[in-house]
Amino acid sequence: MRAFSGYLILMVLLTGCATSKRPPATSGDPREWEGTSSAPLGSRGNKSPYTVFGETYEVMSDSLGYLEIGVASWYGRKFHGRLTSNGETYDMFAMTAAHKSLPIPTIVEVTNLDNGRKAIVRVNDRGPFHDDRLIDVSYSVASLLGFADEGTAPVVVRTLDELNYPDLDVAERESELFYLQVGAFARETGAQRRLDQVRNLISVNGVAEVDVKILTSELEDAILHKVWMGPIGTEEQMDALASLVEAANLGMPLRVDVE
Predict the structure, then answer these.
(1) CB crowding 104-137: b at 16 or more within 10 Å, else e
(2) Taking the alpha carbons of 194, 226, 159, 239 in that order, is the dihedral positive or negative?
(3) Mapped to the 3 state alphabet, what secondary structure does 128-163 carry?
(4) pLDDT of 148-163, one tens digit each?
(5) pLDDT tens for residues 187-235?
(6) Confidence check: pLDDT of 81 > 90
(7) pLDDT band, very low/low/confident/very high, at 16 (cuts 50, 70, 90)
(8) What pLDDT, on the 0 to 100 scale, is given for residue 159?
């Protein structure tokens, strides 16, 4: 269990208000960071499968082409100075993050979908071990992305293949990915109901399987729970899914562009 260090001991206390006069770090030049995501499975931080809190997780064999939307949280002072999964010392002011399945280390770009802010970070830890969380970033990253005060934010996480695999001829992503927002609710129960309705609609009609999830935005005066479908492979599939949702009287889906 040393691989997970003190980070896991207090995982239930993922977020907190970390205060310090030290300013947030800047993203720096990721080309100066050592290591790539091609570290072999089984090396420190890459044991696969592994079990935490009774749940078993598997580490991806590589990170090429990874892109996912989800909810980001952050961890700060409670873990500052403890060991990360790969044996480094966690620094809440460094540009690092924890992810359940990406190889360690992996360089990723995180985009806050609420404000468009971006940060380039290096995954060197495991977590967050909550079903509704995708990535756990340092305090500095959360500050740069503008959600340190709120605690969570909806994000896009994509790997920077050209940095993770500098020796490979990595082609640029040519295919566009499409997403649909099929509802936004003040109460999570409303979002969960819509999510269940959309999943049932997809199943009953036998259309191509597409991920449906809830993204939570913590705003200054409200919390919005948004139901998203995607990624969707083609514009034709997106239009067909939107028509299906409308025909079922589940609202008018909105297309969301993710850079």
Answers:
(1) bbbbbbbbbbbeeeebbbbbbbbbbbeeebbbbb
(2) positive
(3) CCCCCCCEEEEHHHHHHHCCCCCCEEEEEEEECHHH
(4) 998 899 999 999 998 9
(5) 999 999 999 999 999 988 877 778 899 998 887 777 889 999 988 888 8
(6) no
(7) very low
(8) 93
Query: What confidence score (pLDDT) does residue 189 get?
Result: 95
> In the chain, what is the straight-line distance between the N-terminal and C-terminal CA atoms, in Å?
37
The token pair at 60 is: 């991806």
The one-letter amino acid code at 230 reads G
Query: Which token pair is 252?
Result: 């008018």
For residues 175-191, average pLDDT? 89
Tokens representing residue 78 in the block: 């409670």
Which two three-digit tokens encode residue 12?
């239930």
Handedness of CA 9, 218, 96, 176 (dihedral sign): positive
CA distance 97 to 94: 9
